[in-house]
Amino acid sequence: MKAFIISASCALTMSLQACGQPAPDTAPSAAAASESITIQAPAATISQADFISASEQTVNGVVSVKSYATPQQQSYGRGRGQGYADPFSDPFLEFFFGGPGRQRVPEQPQQQEQPKQRQIGLGSGVIISADGYIVTNNHVIANADHLEVTLNDNRNFDATVVGADPTTDIALLKIEAPDDLHVIPMGNSEHLHVGEWVLAVGNPFGFTSTVTSGIVSAKARNISSSTRTAATGGIESYIQTDAAVNSGNSGGALVNLRGELVGINTAIYSQTGSYAGCSFAIPTSIVQKVVADLKQYGTVQRALLGIRFVELSPEFVAEKGIKGATAGIYVDSVEDRSAAREAGLQSGDIITAIESLPTLSTAQMQEAITKFSPGDRVTISYLRDGKHLTTTAVLRNAQGTTATVRELSPDKIGATFKALDREQLQKLQISAGVQVESVDSDGPFAAQGVRPGFVILAINQARVSSPDEIKALARRVLQADARERVMFISGFYPESGKQAFYAIDFNR
Question: Which positions are catalytic?
Answer without folding.
Answer: 139, 169, 250
